[in-house]
Q: What sequence folds into this?
């Protein structure tokens, strides 16, 4: 996966690559899909949600520019794979999932794997986690027309948000830098994510 998918497609951050070698992706997919766990495509994980293709997870992670001291808010825990990757690379991860049927097994698995720097919440991710704000980085793993206002407000100045921005079936992976209270976006690549659902999401 690392040698054939990530490196040839431009992932260069050595810490990111080492983390993808360490975290076993097959543990985060349903049993019937484990033989496909390292393929270059997303996989269903239940509740009409997916685990993103390895390259997209790596690209979003690299775009966060992590150094190991950050507090990260993740919107969309899913099966917990991205959460584990972030936990290896940052100081603290706060992750929100609207589906309890996904959040609970992800929570159990990540605890079994020994991660102690991940905090979990079941709820509307578009509202963020104000009790734990501010965050140095925010990653949104679902499609949204724009960055939800509560998330922008919960980001530290000089912080980064990585999100797929666009319409239901077509988005652009975008990195936002917060400067003096304003977000400035830089587009990276086309992508397709499931919709962000919530009060400030693509769908209500």
A:
């Amino acid at each position: 996966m690392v040698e054939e998918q990530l490196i040839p497609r431009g992932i260069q951050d050595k810490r990111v690559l080492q983390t993808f070698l360490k975290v076993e992706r097959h543990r985060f997919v349903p049993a019937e899909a484990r033989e496909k766990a390292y393929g270059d495509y997303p996989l269903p994980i239940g509740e009409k949600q997916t685990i993103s293709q390895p390259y997209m997870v790596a690209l979003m992670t690299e775009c966060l520019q992590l150094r190991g001291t950050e507090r990260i808010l993740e919107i969309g825990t899913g099966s917990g794979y991205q959460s584990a990757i972030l936990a290896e690379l940052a100081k603290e991860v706060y992750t929100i999932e609207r589906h309890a049927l996904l959040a609970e097994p992800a929570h159990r698995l990540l605890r079994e794997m020994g991660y102690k720097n991940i905090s979990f919440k079941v709820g509307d991710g578009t509202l963020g986690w104000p009790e734990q704000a501010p965050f140095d980085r925010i990653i949104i793993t679902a499609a949204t027309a724009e960055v939800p206002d509560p998330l922008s407000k919960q980001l530290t100045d000089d912080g980064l948000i990585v999100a797929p921005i666009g319409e239901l079936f077509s988005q652009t992976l975008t990195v936002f830098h917060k400067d003096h209270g304003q977000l400035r976006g830089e587009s990276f690549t086309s992508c397709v994510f499931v919709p962000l659902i919530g009060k400030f999401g693509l769908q209500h």
